[in-house]
Each structure stands twice: as structure tokens, then as C-alpha cells.
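Our working data are protein records whose layout never changes between entries. An example says more than a description, so a record of this kind follows.
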Amino acid sequence: MTGPGVATERYFEDFAVGETVEIGRHRITADEIVGFAHQYDPQPFHTDPVKARDSIYNGLIASGWQTCAIVMRVMCDAYLLRAASMGSPGMEEIRWLKPVRPDDTLIVKRTIEEARPTSKADRGLVLTRWDVYNQRDEHVMMMRGYGLFGRRGADA
């Protein structure tokens, strides 16, 4: 949701089906990977560079959940915090396609797949696909999910 004093710039009507745009980038460090993993996903290939070398990944990798959290942050910075966002009823799909490694730069692209009004006149449902690439243009993650957005003129 938008906060007090924050101008709403994007409503349901502003999401055009088929639109694909890069919404942001984030460079991930080894310290970020290890810190997140110790708290939320303490598997050795996320927390211990020495043990990670002996894993099937041949080195430290980020938790897939951390990649999702980074994408969420990129979404907030790019548009959600200035949108008439009403939250999300859930994700449809998440795929971790390649490991994310220290010093990777994650590039997030958003594609609007569907936008339809709901049975409530003040909101619409938007199905979005987020594709995440690293600096080598390798597709590292894909996720699809719905967001609820207020309709223009309905926030009075």
C-alpha cells in the first residue's frame, strides 16, 4: 500500500498486458548470502564457503528464497511503493534455474501476463512474470504471481 504523503503513480489500469520492462538490479555479496542463510536457510552450501566447494554447486550459492526476497525488494523500489497495491493472493510458480553466486548482479525483468477486474469495483488482479538474469545473461530464476491493485478513482 502507499503510505501517507506518498503519491500513487500506478493503478490497475496502468498495467498493460504484454508489457516487459527491466525494473531493477541488485549485486549480491558473499556476506549477504551467508548472513541470510544463517538466519533463514542454513544449509552448508549457503553458509560455509569451504563445505560449499565440496558440494554439487562447487562453491557458495544464494538461497533461492533470498533471490525471491531480493526480487521483492526490487519490485518495491521500482513500483510497488508508489502503486495502489493491495497485496497479493499468492504465487503461481517459482523456478530456480541456475545458482546465484557471490558478486552476481541480478537483473529483474517484469512482464504483465494478465490484467482483469475483480468482482469488487475498486480493484483489479494482475498476473505478472518476473525473470531474473545474472550479468552473463543467464536466466537464474522465474516466478509468476498475482497482485491486487486499486483502480483509478476508487481511492477517494
Observations:
- The chain has a mean pLDDT of 95.
- The longest strand covers residues 105-117.
